[in-house]
Design a protein that fits this description.
single chain, alpha/beta, TIM Barrel, ten-stranded mixed sheet, 8 helices, globular, binds zinc ion
């Protein structure tokens, strides 16, 4: 039977809108057959979108309880989306050992340990100001640091799943800062794919850019997916839902496009681990 899977979800333990139960009911209504929660892991500084430190264990216990409650209806997995910030947080720290899976994402850059962190997916104003004050308006240096940070994470503390690999493009609507055909940009991305291919990480195809109307293509862009296919890097379809109605947003269209790009398998989480499954535009054979 063809169904969808999605392992990138933010519920009200972090910056999502609803209780986990509401997401599970919505997932069942949207023909989802395997499901995971990935709240933003607590970072060692105060931000509104991460799990509060005192709720860290409660989140894990809550999802584990739902996992057994819904065992006969929907396989549910406990994950987190974990930041990589050198010397502060990474997906291989011991507190994440008992999760079913770890999504590793770069949301912050550390241009220099003496300087403040640069937030990649904050507001366009904070991006512009940070670019000016921390990178002297050198977008190439910011992008190259974004991708080299991703490579450092993959080499030193690899997650199971790499989150939104080219998220930094979200601030580049209408090529505001650079062209993604620039050789330096393509090189930074391809160097990162080379490292991903060595580590065995699964790269997610994340539709949030599409339904949030940041871009008509997912993270990663189709030209990046071409490089992923050539290197035979495993992929997975996720939506990075922050609301129950976003769980399978843009999935059919994206699966169709992936098929046209030559992909024949999407990876899913099973009780035995991450595994490939055939798919069509109607869903995944799970
Ligand atoms: Zn993220
Ligand atoms: Zn996310």
């Amino acid at each position: 039977m063809l169904r969808w899977t999605n392992y990138h979800q933010h519920c009200h333990y972090c910056d999502g809108t609803d209780a986990p139960e509401t997401y599970i009911k919505a997932a069942l209504a949207q023909n989802v057959g395997s499901f995971g929660f990935s709240s933003h892991a607590t970072v060692p500084f105060s931000v509104p979108w991460c799990i509060k430190p005192h709720l860290f264990d409660a989140y894990i216990e809550h999802i584990k309880r739902l996992k057994s409650e819904y065992a006969d209806q929907l396989p549910i997995y406990v994950g987190m989306e974990i930041d990589y910030i050198p010397s502060l947080i990474n997906p291989r720290q011991a507190q994440f050992d008992n999760l079913d899976y770890r999504i590793g994402s770069v949301h912050y850059l550390q241009p220099n340990p003496e300087l403040p962190l640069f937030e990649v997916d904050g507001t366009s104003k904070s991006f512009r100001e940070g670019l000016e004050t921390l990178f002297a308006n050198d977008i190439r240096r910011a992008c190259e640091l974004y991708y080299s940070s991703t490579r450092d994470m993959l080499r030193q503390c690899p997650p199971d799943i790499l989150g939104h690999i080219d998220k930094i493009k979200m601030r580049n609507t209408d090529n505001r800062y650079f062209s993604d055909t620039d050789i330096w940009y393509r090189q930074a991305v391809m160097d990162t794919l080379d490292v991903a291919a060595e580590t065995g990480v699964v790269i997610e195809v994340n539709t949030r850019s599409m339904y949030k109307k940041k871009n008509i293509q997912p993270y990663p862009s189709y030209w990046v997916l071409e490089g992923i296919r050539q290197r035979r890097i495993p992929i997975m379809l996720n939506s990075d839902a922050h609301q129950p109605r976003e769980i399978t947003a843009e999935f059919a269209q994206t699966a169709e496009q992936l098929y046209q790009l030559g992909f024949r398998e999407l990876h899913i989480i099973t009780p035995q681990g991450i595994a490939p499954r055939p798919f069509t535009a109607e869903g995944i054979e799970i």
